[in-house]
Amino acid sequence: MKISNNIIFVSVLCTSFSLYADNQCDTVSCSEHFTQGPYIGIDIGFGWLDMSDFQVNKGVSSNKSNDGVTRSLNIGYLFPINDQFSIGPEIGYETFFNSPDIKFNRGNNSASIKVEDALYFPIYAVTQYHLTNDVYLFTKLGAAYVRQKTSVSSNAINIAPLSDTQTSNDWRFAGSIGIGYALQDYLGLSIHYTYIDGDNSSDILTSNETQPYRFQNVGMGVTFSF
């Protein structure tokens, strides 16, 4: 099921790019559609979790795979303040295609910590500023509901005071910055950087509480404005 969802998501993204054919936008229509009204965005990118500072015992090697390809969907509405500046609310969803993990080895013994699910549901206040009729900058500030399910498996190595499976659910600060370009009346491209606060691996291992890992992402996507 997860593989099928990934294939569908990539297919939708590729189809979106193929729409760049007829009807290049003029200066008026692009400015109107990308400064006001509802929009939907589909993004794909590269993300990573802050699992890089695990302290391992002497003789224990580690193999970190705490990053991977991400996908996201966002829906929002812009209210124009003037011809160049707009603000509005946005909600979204973001996750990994893969499951980030860290593996430990000592002789014939091994252990692993895997983030089986990493789900992010941000709520943003968006500001958008048009440099030209086609090019715009945007910032997003708000909070994200984070759900991370982590599993620990080991045949001998005592690597962390964690149970076999733990789930963290928490609200964390979230922010994003980027730049976009209006291709057509209703279609635009954008690139962005996203940060969702969390703890690093050392903080999590020394805490008795279940906390989410810090998440960062760079990506690009398409935006449909209505």
The gross shape turns out to be: elongated
The percentage helix is: 10-25%
- Number of helical stretches of at least 4 residues: 3
What is the count of structural domains? 1
Cα separation of the termini: 31 Å
SS content category: mainly beta
- Evaluate the radius of gyration: 20 Å
What would CATH call the class?
A: Mainly Beta
Seen as an oligomer or otherwise, the chain set is: single chain
- The whole-number mean of residue pLDDT values reads 79
Side by side, the strands of the main sheet go 1-3-4-6-7-8-9-10
Low-confidence stretches: 12-24
CATH architecture identity: Beta Barrel
Q: Give the strand tally.
A: 10
- At the fold tier of CATH, the topology name is Porin
What fraction of the residues are assigned to beta strands by DSSP?
over 45%
Describe the largest sheet: 8 strands, antiparallel, barrel
Protein name: Outer membrane protein beta-barrel domain-containing protein
Signal peptide: 1-21
Organism: Paraphotobacterium marinum
Pfam family, one: OMP_b-brl
Quick take:
The protein has about 230 residues and is mostly beta strands.
Q: How would you sum up this structure, described in words?
A:
Keywords: Signal. Residues 111-226 form the Outer membrane protein beta-barrel domain. It comes from Paraphotobacterium marinum. InterPro entries: Beta-barrel_OMP, OMP/PagP_B-barrel. This protein has one domain: Beta Barrel (Porin). Helices cover 13% and strands 58% of the residues. The chain is built from three helices and ten strands. It has helices at residues 2-18, 27-33, 201-205, and strands at 37-49, 61-65, 67-80, 85-96, 101-106, 109-130, 135-154, 165-182, 187-196, 215-225. An eight-stranded antiparallel β-barrel has the order 1-3-4-6-7-8-9-10. The longest helix is centred in the first third of the chain and has 17 residues, at 2-18. It starts with a helix and ends with a strand. Mean pLDDT is 79; it is low at 12-24.
